């Protein structure tokens, strides 16, 4: 997965949060648009002054920033504890360990590290769960959590997955699996589904926990503007865009790729690596 683009109600406030609480670096800024990341772009913020929360609509559930290793996750949590960064959850998913938070506009964020792939490869459906995170074990990666250095999210951090609020899970699975070609890795009936390429535990999550039957977030809300799916080549971009077109959509070519919409109105940009 590539960068997500989000609208925010107060760009200065959001830049402060995403840099100082989350740990991203400002890579570029042009007026009301700012690009943040580590050694690559991960999040783009677009100013929409006064925008209200988009919760209750389809859109972003969370953007998940995958750290390169477990000690990096421990350093991030130590930083969050020292700086009193508000958290929403700390979970062990068997395939990964994850920490959840929300930015000032209520955009969901996950900071996580994968468990070694050999421990879950081929068994995602049976293993993936949600248990309390063993914080003591995680902090065991550090000599002293109180003094562990934190200089922002490390190089090698990527968008590991994008988790979406959708109106209907079966329709979402049909689009991402049958049209785009993601493999269905796990599903919780009509409530949630997890899809991926290459055997990963999930690149796309989708749930109806806050959005069953909901409409897309309208202008005037702090919302997901677009998520990015990175494909191996321009030929693959064209191939998938043609499949979407065959389903009755009109994909839109633009800067960085071709935009399509899932059944819940979430915009995906198909981009070549």
Describe this structure in words.
There is one protein chain. Helices cover 21% and strands 37% of the residues. It is α+β, with helices and mostly antiparallel strands and 273 residues long. 43% of the residues are buried.
Topology as a string of helices (H) and strands (E): EHEEEEEHEEEHEHEHEEEEEHEEE
The CA-CA distance between the termini, in Å, is: 10 Å
Structural class comes to alpha+beta
How many DSSP H or I helices? 6
Overall geometry comes to: globular
Biggest sheet details: 9 strands, mixed
Low-confidence stretches: none
Q: How large is the share of residues in beta strands?
A: 35-45%
- Rg is 18 Å
Mean pLDDT: 97
Strand order of the largest sheet: 10-7-8-9-6-11-14-13-12
Portion of residues in helices?
A: 10-25%
By DSSP, the count of extended strands is 19
How is this fold's topology laid out?
Elements: E1 4-8, H1 11-22, E2 25-30, E3 33-37, E4 41-47, E5 52-53, E6 59-66, H2 70-82, E7 89-92, E8 96-102, E9 108-114, H3 124-127, E10 131-132, H4 135-139, E11 158-165, H5 169-179, E12 183-188, E13 192-196, E14 204-207, E15 221-222, E16 224-231, H6 234-246, E17 252-254, E18 257-261, E19 267-272
